[in-house]
Design brief:
single chain, 743 residues, mainly beta, 22-stranded antiparallel beta barrel, 8% helix, globular
Length: 743
């Protein structure tokens, strides 16, 4: 590794010297250079461009706005190539998830203005903590595969770069309200002062979303804010951002089994209360997830001269909250067997009552996460006609306190209120650096080189619920090189080829469930892009070779987090095609198709007590066919209506190709209509938007879980492997409709 790092530093130095030589030559022709605005400089180091040899899709604010009626960002990205989304509550509000090329959200790198958003420990992204964030987004870029180096954990399925709203040149105020099925109501207030004294601007947003959800009691109560202050002159852009949200959602991560799905598909078992005879007597009213997250960002972009620009980003994120749970004694002793009603689990001493000793009690507990996340990013960018060089660096530190409080118990003796029954702290420090160079080698050929070094130090100390001691001391140094070529066939077409290596560390849940190893990926991409006045097409082939991939097993832990395991060698190979075609003046067609093969190459499984080689098996949650389609009719500039469709092929929820673990293929279509009216100078614009989702009222499940366990008791001396599955049903036909008035 030291040799690799030394080689990296030498190469970076040589690139820097080359840049100086290019600068001397380019001074003679600086008048011919295109000017990079400060808005673009801010994120130019991590975003892909047309001549970057990676596979990506850009989504603009206008495209987002046409369907932004309260659903989370993953749902708004549902129709992109190779994307599969899901919603715990069944209607896109609350906890939502996204998978790209079969990789779940923990493997999709997400940045907000270049700042990592993935949780440092779990590596997941929880959009429910930023309600209505789409209303403050300027542009989103989805890079599929490893992509280019970015900040935070390496991308193993995709990277999602989110840029928030830029400086608004004109003042405005807007009020938005939308209503929909399941008593959904969203209200948003936005404003901008425009440019004050040609240098300053202030803007902001307040949002509130309430929805009961499709699943029983899967209610969401969401509040959010976004404020931005900016200073800009010819060479400087400074932006201070304050944004965040507070969510209270009734838990709906339990899913339902096949029998319940057939008889009562909206049933939610969360918070069940039973009497001593096993009869359900009700539900606990406050079985909720309650979390607040605040983000403070400062971005400074400086144009040094015609060739050089620099950027500095500072971030502090403060998150705190809990999920509250009623632990029923009868359920725990007869169905769940989790042990969370035992005194040992709660770290209480048994209570002697005469000849009886109490060792279990019904109880209500809160499991807390209180965390701080500090980030600094640095960027230095150099550009001439022939050469672009981007330097980027990151330093971050995460401190997360995990603890459990006992709120109530039926029999607790002298136990004090808020008795703490476990406590641990996770600390994660990361430092990374990348250098990227894009060089025009000939008039037709462009070379790309991207080198990144990441260093991670992760430690945990304390106890987790059980009680169990939990201690982690791990350090990693990863060298992730990437390189590629782009060949311009004509002004309208190009070919690209790239190789990228990615390595990433396990997450907290991986450590809780075993002794995980870091995973490695070699990603090969070959693509073709074509763009003219009426047609834009991108087609690409990919070959992704994994070593020690941490694949989803299908099982969940007690808080609904996916359990993963290292599987040795695995592979994803695929073809992706997407297009935007202007069929006629009033008709626009946007189809996409992703075909793939996703396999464990030599999978072992212990069935009925005997370890068996299953050979090649399908990777969990990896459909071989994913297709999207949008057909839009726009008879005028003020009105458009579109039909959007999504097909997701059959999936296995486990890795053993069991038919008990399948999610059936589904094909869902939506209708989206937008009407825009510009009445007068006082009211700048009125926009009415309607979404009718799942217009054919299909009953389908977009997510689920699968588990196995060994039964050693039913037949003494014989082990029998039992399989089980759960499903997350999605809503049938439902609607959202909203009105936005801009002054």
């Amino acid at each position: 590794m030291k040799t690799l790092q030394l080689s990296f530093l030498l190469l970076a130095s040589s690139i820097g010297l080359h840049a100086q030589e290019q600068s001397k030559v380019s001074l003679k022709r600086q008048d011919s250079l295109s000017t990079i605005t400060l808005e673009e400089v801010q994120l130019t180091g991590i975003r892909a461009k047309e001549n970057t040899p990676v596979t990506f899709t850009n989504v603009t604010q206008k495209e987002i706005a046409s369907r932004n009626l309260g659903q989370d960002i993953p749902i708004l990205l549902n129709y992109l190539p190779a994307v599969v989304t899901t919603s715990d509550a069944g209607a896109g509000i609350g906890y939502t998830g996204i998978r790209v090329r079969g990789s779940d959200a923990t493997r999709v790198n997400v940045t907000l203005n270049g700042i990592p958003y993935n949780d440092a420990e779990s590596q997941g992204t929880f959009w429910v903590n930023l309600p209505d964030f789409a209303s403050s987004v300027e542009q989103i870029q989805l890079q599929r595969g490893v992509g280019t180096s970015t900040n935070g954990a390496a991308a193993f399925g995709a990277s999602l770069n989110v840029e928030t709203a830029g400086v608004q040149p004109k003042a405005f105020t807007s009020l938005s309200s939308s209503i929909g099925s399941f008593n959904t109501l969203k209200n948003t207030f936005q404003f901008s002062t425009g440019m004050l004294n040609d240098h300053f601007s202030f803007s902001g947003r307040l949002s509130k979303i309430n929805s009961e959800g499709y699943v029983d009691r899967a209610a969401s109560h969401l509040d959010a804010y976004f404020f931005q202050a900016a200073f800009q002159d010819e060479n400087t852009l400074i932006k201070a951002l304050f944004f965040g949200g507070h969510e209270i959602t009734y838990q709906s991560w339990y899913g339902v089994d096949a029998q319940t799905l057939a008889s009562d598909r909206t049933y939610n078992p969360a918070g069940e209360i039973y009497d001593n005879n096993g009869n359900r007597s009700g539900f606990y009213e406050n079985q909720v997830d309650d979390y607040t997250q605040d983000h403070y960002q400062l971005h400074w972009d400086e144009k040094i001269n015609s060739f050089w620009s620099a950027s500095l980003g500072l971030n502090y994120t403060y998150g705190r909250g809990f999920y509250e749970e009623y632990n029923d004694l009868w359920y725990d002793q007869n169905i769940g067997f989790g042990g969370n009603t035992s005194f040992n689990y709660l770290q209480l001493k048994p209570i002697d009552l005469g000849e009886t000793t109490l060792e279990n009690t019904e109880n209500t507990s809160q499991k807390w996460l209180d965390n701080d996340y500090y980030v600094m990013t640095l960027g230095l960018n150099y550009q001439t006609v022939q050469t672009t060089i981007n330097f980027g660096g990151l330093y971050s530190r995460y401190i997360g306190d995990h603890f459990g409080n006992l709120l109530w118990g039926q029999m607790l003796g002298n136990t004090q209120p808020n008795h703490r029954f476990y406590e641990n702290q996770g600390i994660k420090t990361e430092a990374s650096f990348f250098v990227k160079a894009t060089q025009n080698l000939t008039p037709q050929l462009t070379g790309f080189l991207d080198l990144q070094v990441r260093g991670i130090d992760y430690s945990v100390d304390g106890t987790i619920s059980g009680p169990q001691a939990f201690k982690v001391e791990d350090q990693f140094t990863f060298f992730n090189p990437k390189a590629g070529l782009t060949y311009r066939l004509s002004q309208k077409q190009n070919l690209y080829f790239s190789y990228a290596k990615a390595q990433r560390e396990p997450n907290r849940t991986d450590y809780e469930n075993g002794n995980p190893k870091p995973e490695k990926l070699n990603d090969f991409e070959f693509g073709w892009r074509m763009k003219n006045e009426k047609t834009q097409v991108q087609a690409n082939l990919y070959w992704m070779e994994y070593q020690d991939q941490l694949v989803l097993t299908g099982a969940l832990d007690e808080v609904g987090a996916p359990i993963r395991q290292n599987v040795g060698e695995s592979r994803r190979v695929g073809l992706e095609v997407d297009a935007t075609i202007q069929l006629a003046t009033q008709w626009l067609w946007k189809p996409n198709l992703a075909l793939s093969s996703n396999q464990n190459l030599d999978f072992y499984f212990k069935r009925d007590g005997i370890l068996q080689s299953l050979g090649k098996t399908q990777l969990a949650f990896s459909p071989n066919v994913v297709a999207g389609n949008a057909l839009v009719f726009a008879p005028s500039t003020g009105f458009q209506i579109g039909v959007l469709s999504k097909y997701v092929g059959k999936q296995y929820m486990g890795n053993i190709d069991s038919e008990n673990s399948t999610l059936a293929a589904y094909f869902v279509s939506d209708i989206n209509a937008v009407f825009i009216w510009q009445p007068n100078k006082w009211v700048k614009e009125i926009q009415w938007t309607t979404m009718i989702n799942n217009i054919f009222n299909l009953k389908y499940e977009s997510n689920g879980y699968f588990y196995t366990y060994d039964d050693d008791f039913s037949n003494p001396g014989q082990t029998l492997t039992i399989e089980g599955a759960g499903y997350y049903p999605q809503a049938g036909i439902h609607f959202l409709s909203g009105l936005t008035i801009t002054f």
